[in-house]
Automatic annotation (TrEMBL):
Primary location recorded for the protein, binned into one broad class: cytoplasm
Name the record gives this protein: UDP-N-acetylmuramoylalanine--D-glutamate ligase
One of the GO BP terms on file: cell division
Reactions catalysed according to its record: UDP-N-acetyl-alpha-D-muramoyl-L-alanine + D-glutamate + ATP = UDP-N-acetyl-alpha-D-muramoyl-L-alanyl-D-glutamate + ADP + phosphate + H(+)
Function: Cell wall formation. Catalyzes the addition of glutamate to the nucleotide precursor UDP-N-acetylmuramoyl-L-alanine (UMA).
Chain coiled-coil ranges: none
Enzyme Commission designation: 6.3.2.9
Keywords: ATP-binding, Cell cycle, Cell division, Cell shape, Cell wall biogenesis/degradation, Cytoplasm, Ligase, Nucleotide-binding, Peptidoglycan synthesis
Annotated family: Belongs to the MurCDEF family.
Organism of origin: Jeotgalibacillus salarius
Name of the gene encoding the protein in the UniProt record: murD
GO annotations of cellular component type: cytoplasm
Length: 450
């Protein structure tokens, strides 16, 4: 950890706790800042705030009072989940106070080489693959960000000569000022989180921010099949390494139909890759680009791709029962992710879908439902999902209360040779606190089937 002096004796307000807020508060306190923490949950119900109070950190709980801004803070560190429309955050910006997220802190103290991964879909798979490839090459690597431990916590233990692979959301990237990974990856860009961002343009700009501070010595690995994305990063100073699943590239990463090739060099035969689905080819190419740029051998890359079958909650194989295969794709929180999952299977599929209603349509999902024999719908979007399934010609549509009931219903309609796929196309927050909880409930219910 670098003994960074930039926050010493500065008056800093941390808004919002949870894992990132606690980690940021403790780090800033260690770095000599005068920290005040503000969280909406009352102190009596707030174990995180009580922990910080015990450390001598000032805590204000129960609401986000705008009057706090009159105390002359020099910096705001915002929990990524708090929108910029929050009156306290809006007020800070209006007063010209810088508002950052904790990944900025991680950047300032990190001795390790930072590899940043963002995009609408595929972040977790790509991040995991890069980490596994580096580790398999007998090099030390840590994963951080959305995939696990808070980045500014990991940065305190990752040393020089090691890698820190960070999964980054648009929420986090909107709050960076100097953050600059030496290798950055943008897997793809599609409509998502428009309930948080004011527009699609703001969302795209937030993703593209991963490269805004990179220099000529840094690398940007980016999806060349998306014109909108390529346009968004056209002013980058980083060296661009494009990848494509649709065309052969003389420079960059693509496929010649039999192998994945980088800059003319065959890295791995397609037949040797275990991870299913065309959408995962994007993730694999991005990971190969990052790993080879970092100095990982082809042998280590091939070993990982020959064994890696997916991450938890992302088209995760759970069990085979009576010749029926069950897959957990709870991380599919948007239409595109569910389309990708459906297109990975060529057999009759029982689709379990539904969740938080963000007001969007699911019409685009219909084109990918040709193999869906039954749709089992739940959550706030159950009726919308039913209409989409009907428009796709799905004859058997069952409405249930939740994921557990959906598994029971699926076990009744699935027959030998079918796939049962939980791929909700929605966030989980109408019924479950996270997509992980939703996926774990699915796994538990499937494993109880007899």
């Amino acid at each position: 950890m670098i003994d960074y002096k930039g926050y010493q004796n500065k008056k800093i307000l941390v808004v919002g706790l949870a894992k990132s807020g606690v980690a940021a508060s403790l780090l800033l306190h260690k770095l000599g800042a005068f920290v005040t923490v503000n969280d909406w949950k009352p102190l009596s119900e707030n174990k995180d705030a009580q922990q910080l109070l015990d450390q001598g950190i000032k805590v204000i709980c129960g609401s986000h009072p705008v009057e706090l801004l009159d105390e002359g803070f020099e910096l705001i560190v915002k929990n990524p989940g708090i929108p910029y429309s929050n009156p306290l955050i809006k007020g800070a910006i209006a007063k010209g106070m810088p508002v950052i997220t904790e990944v900025e802190l991680a950047y300032h103290i990190s001795e390790a080489q930072l590899i940043g991964v963002t995009g609408t879909n595929g972040k977790t798979t790509t991040t995991t693959l890069i980490h596994e490839m580096i580790t398999n090459d007998d090099k030390k690597s840590y994963v951080a960000g959305n995939i696990g431990t808070v980045a500014c916590e990991v940065a305190q233990i990752a040393n020089k000569g090691e890698a820190m692979v960070i999964e980054l959301s648009s929420f986090q990237l909107m709050g960076i000022r100097q953050f600059a990974p030496s290798i950055s990856i943008i897997t793809n860009i599609y409509d998502a989180h428009l309930d948080y961002h004011s527009s699609k343009q703001e969302y795209v700009e937030a993703k593209a921010a991963i490269t805004k501070n990179q220099s000529e010595e840094d690398m940007l690995i980016v999806n060349a099949d998306q014109e909108e994305l390529m346009s968004a990063v056209e002013n980058t100073r980083a060296t661009v390494i494009p990848f494509s699943t649709k065309k052969v590239l003389s420079e960059g990463i693509s496929s010649d139909g039999e192998h994945i090739v980088m800059n003319g060099e065959s890295v791995i035969a397609l037949r040797d890759i275990v991870l299913p689905g065309r959408h995962n080819l994007e993730n694999i190419m991005a990971a190969i680009g990052a790993a080879k740029t970092y100095g990982v051998s082809n042998e280590s890359i091939r070993k990982v791709l020959g064994e890696f079958s997916g991450v938890k909650h992302r088209t995760q194989f759970v069990r085979e029962l009576n010749d029926i295969k069950f897959y957990n794709d709870s991380k599919a929180t948007n239409v595109l992710a569910t389309q990708s999952a459906l297109e990975a299977f060529k057999v009759p599929t029982v689709l379990l879908c539904g969740g938080l209603d963000r007001g969007n349509s699911f019409d685009e999902l219909a084109s990918s439902m040709s193999n869906v024999k039954s749709a089992i719908v739940f959550g706030e979007t159950a009726d919308k999902m039913s209409e989409t399934a009907k428009s796709a010609g799905v004859e058997n549509i069952i409405k249930v209360k939740d994921v557990e009931e959906a598994v029971a219903a699926a076990s009744e309609v699935a027959i030998s040779g079918d796939v049962v796929l939980l791929s909700p196309a929605c966030a989980s927050w109408d019924q479950y606190p996270t997509f992980e909880v939703r996926g774990d409930i699915f796994i538990d219910a499937v494993n109880k089937l007899k």
